[in-house]
Write a structure and sequence with these properties.
It holds the Pfam family MarR_2. The protein is mainly alpha-helical and 149 residues long. The chain is built from six helices and three strands; from the N terminus they run ααβααββαα.
């Protein structure tokens, strides 16, 4: 195997990407009722932040196209996990909010993945996680603040 001399930041972002792929695959294996990671992420986002979100705002938050977010929201709405209503300030826009059923499914999903999180916690103790978190937050904040619209 050739020895690469990639800069540390390149290796870091490579590791983050691989972690995301592995975590997404395992998450989707564990999620209830065929829920996809993208759908769970929207439910989790709405549960954490609350309120009503426009499709455009959600698409921007997740760095996906409006069409991709519309598809995700339609699938969630068909399962009564989100409520979609017209925006009273802009009749062309829709507002999305979490339903009680959506919150329950999100909670069920969190409960379902808890054993995976416990197994991972056995590999990283709380002190290691606490040292790692500020660095990951710093990377995320930089990328978020410097992303192109």
């Amino acid at each position: 195997m050739p020895e690469l001399n990639d800069p540390p930041i390149f290796r870091l972002l490579g590791e983050i990407g691989i972690i995301e792929q592995l975590a997404r695959t395992e998450l989707e294996r564990l999620l209830p009722d065929g829920l996809k990671a993208s759908q769970f992420n929207v439910l989790n986002h709405l549960a954490r932040l609350g309120g009503e979100w426009s499709l455009v705002r959600l698409a921007n938050a997740f760095q996906v196209t409006r069409g991709a977010m519309t598809n995700t929201i339609q699938r969630l709405e068909a399962r009564d996990l989100v409520h979609v209503s017209p925006d009273p300030e802009d009749g062309r826009s829709k507002l999305v909010s979490l339903t009680p059923q959506g919150l329950a499914v999100r909670q069920q999903a969190v409960t379902t993945v808890t054993p995976l999180l416990a197994a991972l916690s056995a590999q990283l103790n709380d002190a290691e996680i606490e040292r790692l978190l500020p660095l990951l937050v710093k990377v995320r904040q930089y990328l978020d603040e410097n992303r192109s619209a």
